[in-house]
Records
---
Amino acid sequence: MSRVSKKEEAIKAKYDKLSQEAKPKPKYIKNVIMAFLVGGAICTIGQGIFELLKAFGISEYDAKIWLPIIMVFLGALLTGIGVYDKIANFAGAGTVPITGFANAVVSPAIELKKEGFVFGVAAKMFTIAGPVLVYGIGSSVIIGIIYYLLLYYSIL
């Protein structure tokens, strides 16, 4: 019995060694640089849109309202035509959360369109973004209640 165990251990050790050698090495420096550059480019585009809105006579307050709407639309549009995934693969983790959120909502909807609009698109659209929405909205409600209570009892 111990002989089989030693043989199994030798095979396992050899397998572990081979799998470690075959495992791709992460490219941390490249990923950090690409995330910085692509994320910065997306933010620069957003700033350009903001300045363009102001140049067209939209007030700064209204431009701050329109900018997230436009960025989410652009993220969804680029996902729909298949460009956003290429940008995300190129950038690694360098896509900005607001455009990434649009991608997280649109991607499952596009993928599951073949199952129909009710059971595919509508039912699965928030599979990735749903938990983010639930915990984001839930935590904001809790923080809002705490803030209200702190104001009500004159602590703040």
---
Amino acid sequence: MVPIFFVLQRKTSFPLVFHSICTIFEFLSKILTFEKTQINLVFSSLIRIFAVMNQFKRFFVWLSRIHRCRGFGIQSPTDYSFVRYVINEHWPYYGYEQLEGNDWLTNKLGRLYFRLANWRQPTMMLVDDYQRYLQAGCNKTTFAPIINKVELARVTIDDKDGWEVLLSKCDNQSVIVVEGLWRNWERWHEIEADERTAITFDLYYCGIVFFDKTRYKHNYKINF
């Protein structure tokens, strides 16, 4: 059997063979480019679909709590004022424009923490991922890796050890934010039922816990 190289060498000129090879490679390159473009389009479509689904989820969460907007139905003047003028205050604070985060939830929670710090005016807090929001809300706050007393603190819903450490440093004036309720509702209900907590506010994306034992225990669900 005669090798193809010798057949081509005898019957075809080298420039023609080179041109044919280049044509084949160009064709393959176009196919690969087309496939890459299609893959990119698929990923872009999936991202848009997830974004739309996330917007629908946020809308349904809001709709399911629409009757709990802006303190409606809250009998306690203190709790009503807290919900109306801290949790759901829509007035554009001076520091918002300089505190934009990378996504809507970071912005939403960061602005809440800004208002909480502005309301609570803590002198010392633990170092926190949302520190720039908290510091903007209260310039006098000092941040440290260890604190002796909780004035205002944040912990994630799954961090049970962190919760217990903070709880041991709480008094009647302490406030703890528990972030990520939707990830572990069972754990949040345990916190609500805990005899050491007094007033709790379920905001879906986070919870706010008060420890003033001079008040009757109450658990609120708020449209945030």
---
Amino acid sequence: METIKWAVNEMPKTDDSQLQVMSLENVAKARAFHESFPQYSVTPLVKLDHMAAYLGLKEVYVKDESYRFGLNAFKVLGGSFAMARYIAKQTGKDVSELPYNVLTSDELRKEFGQATFFTATDGNHGRGVAWAANKLGQKSVVLMPKGSTQTRLNNILKEGAKATIEEENYDECVRMANAMAEKTENGVMVQDTAWDGYEEIPAWIMQGYGTMANEADDQLQLAALGFIDVVRANLGLGADDDCVKLTQGRAQLFGSIELLDDLVACLAQLRHGGLVHSISYENTHDKISLYLFCEIRRDRICRAL
């Protein structure tokens, strides 16, 4: 058996006021919004008995997001809810007043009009933004970094978005998309990374991801699991693993780990107090491409669970 590389979350608990962003109230609104879509269904929480035996564990469960809205990824949860939150803010409503049937109504169209949602992506987030914009009668523009596959581009184009693969890395595509949004009437940047001055929409995206954790929490209760030893989250831009905090209240979360390969082991050190560097690779087929040529910013992106 190969050695599994992992890192224990040793960050101390905090009274950070920003934790309220992921309150159960906010996540409940996100889930109610997603449930209002006619395409919605709860994704499976799969019990992996053979994997548990292989790892020497009692039980292992995996949340299978390949079923999410037929898009094969959870990212649509964030982009769609951020759109709803934005429209709610612009119309002076609470997002709970804007389920799918209201957002797609003629009345809302007359009141709000139509926005163009801009984003940068290597595939899943952009496809989710394009899908949600299409379903809600809005427009979308997606910029993809150099090395993105034609298949992923085609999937986004099928959702009615304007999408292109640029000759730039991910960070530059983010800057380009944001500049385009600022110059476009009713243009809105919907990005799953944050920077100084751009934090509200990424927070809404995180809340949208909370639907996934909220579903899993219900499913674990149905499985009569009152105690969870470890929750494993992907190490990426931060929003996915942040949403896993939601399990801590009911499931008595003991700790959290992140499974690491050689590259991610390096990034994990940044998350746990190491120096912060900007990472860029020429070889777009290298493993780094999975991390979207990210500039690792400890203050916003590299955060512990």
